Amino acid sequence: MKLFLLAIAGLAIATPAAAEVKSASDGGFEVVSVETVKATPAAAYDALRNPGQWWNGEHSYSGDAKNMTIDARAGGCFCERTPGGGTIEHGRIIYAQPGKVLRFVGGLGPLQSEAITATMTWTIEPAPGGAKITQRYVASGYMPGGLKGIAPVVDKVLAEQLGRLKVILDKPAG
After folding, report:
1. pTM of the model
2. CATH number of 2-170: 3.30.360.10, 3.30.160.70, 3.30.830.10, 3.30.530.20?
3. pLDDT of 22-79, one tens digit each?
4. Residues 6+ apart with CB under 8 A from 162
């Protein structure tokens, strides 16, 4: 866990802001990132369901994003396999509308071990030349020291993931 926290702290310094902390307090925060991709909404949704292709393995517990899966149905799991047969539930899917919306509840990374309730929503809309993906993560609850200070770090880590999804979706076919 210390390595994970150091990695996200390092990313906060190294990655330019591509998202926005909409609000933050000691009791919670909201971060939003938006990307327009060169893919249809259906293709964007399909790619979103496969985090092993675009999530940065440095921001996983196993160190390899290929161990991450999303079962995109209500009750499905955003899960990760770890060496030695372990598993992690990053989130539980609560809303899945192919080509439009994917939502889960769950505290990511260091938020998972705290008294935090969090919701991630990816909304996909048609846009000129492709689709617009809006990523919104809202968290509230108790964490020693409060949530305000971690909001910019979470913002940068999640913006990086959406940026990586964009790279995959913007690649020419073939």
Report:
1. 0.88
2. 3.30.530.20
3. 999 999 999 999 999 999 999 999 999 999 999 999 999 999 999 999 999 999 999 9
4. 18, 19, 33, 35, 133, 135
